[in-house]
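REVIEWER CHECKLIST
Item 1: Sequence provided? yes
Item 2: Single chain? yes
Item 3: Sequence as submitted:
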Amino acid sequence: MDIYRNTSEVEEVTAFIKENTRKLLNIEDIRLYPISARSALEAKLSVLNYDGDHEELLSNDSRWTASRFHELEKFLFSFLDGSTNTGKERIRLKLETPIGIADRLLTSCVRLVKQEYENACQDLISIEEIINSIDVYAMKMESESISWIRQTVSLIVAARDRAVKLLESILQLSNIDLVTTYAFKGEKSVLLPATLNFQNEIIVPALTETQRLLGEYSMWLQSKNGQQRKLLSDRFYEQFNSLIGIEDKVQLGTNEFLGKGEELSIRVVENFGASAASRLFEQEIREVVLGTFGGLGAAGLSASLLTSVLPTTLEDLLALTFCSAGGLLAISKFAGRRKEAIEKVRKVADGLEREIEEAMQKDLRQGVQSLKYHVEAISKPYRHAAERRIDRLLKFQDELANVEEKLRDLKVEIQNLHAM
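Item 4: Structure as written out by the authors:
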């Protein structure tokens, strides 16, 4: 009514609305309440400044009468009158409608948050599974590395067997020229031809081939670990990149790969000098020769001295017999000394074999550990994001539970309207 100039305009608009509403809704009984909200508000506000019966004051106010707002109030009060059963039922229906809508919205929210929570928990489980997959990868690498270790060990074993065979061929009583050469060589720095043959034909080729194979083994480790590192990094990015924010992505981008390791197996071979091994080989031969033929020479010298000083031939024969027995005893120990020398060579070779095998296994473990450190480092932003998401959803669930409890209380209060 506030926008119309007189009563005739109000009646004209009212008739127009009734007619079109009747056509639209196909009903005859249509009640409209044209009001002047401005006049009603002014009248309501004016009576607030006075004590007494506000209803009586409003009834005497021309603005209130002209606003016709009292007709709308009367209709609303009669419709929502809680003093009658019909009014209570109407109030209950009016209140249950928004409560029902809120209940359905709450149910949808609870279901959605629950699903999101389960997804977040599954994301965290998947992240842990990716990290734990390193253990499976480590077992696979250990299995594949066995062939590398066997190849490397076979080179050492072959060199050991050739060295033993050469040593056996040198330490023969029938090989008197070579034995004599070693016996009278002394501590000269120049290696003898047989020792040079040991160095150039056995030790150097074996160490060179072993070093080449260990280099390939190291490259294989780096390649496999690099592939696995990229595979797991890509899995994190593809599955969980949406979980992390810009700051986490920047931090993730600055993470560097860990080093390739010490390559301990290669260092073991580098530290095993061919020259030192050759001199050790020659020293073992000299000890066997001197330990045997040195005793034999001492026995001969003793026999010569005794026969020159003893007075009778019988005593000379006895002296020769005892000295010959001493020489025979020295020669009889030759086989034992040769066996000891061979065992020393075997021991050195077996020690090198064990050291290389342990170093290869350690190279493998270090590479896998480096990979694990890297994966744990790049997984932190994803894990923290998943954990924060779970915590946030748990809070949402608590809040929704509180809202659900309040709605339940409201439903009870609405149902109790009949009992009032």
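Item 5: Key structural point noted by reviewer: DSSP finds 13 helices and no strands in the chain.
Item 6: Recommendation: ____
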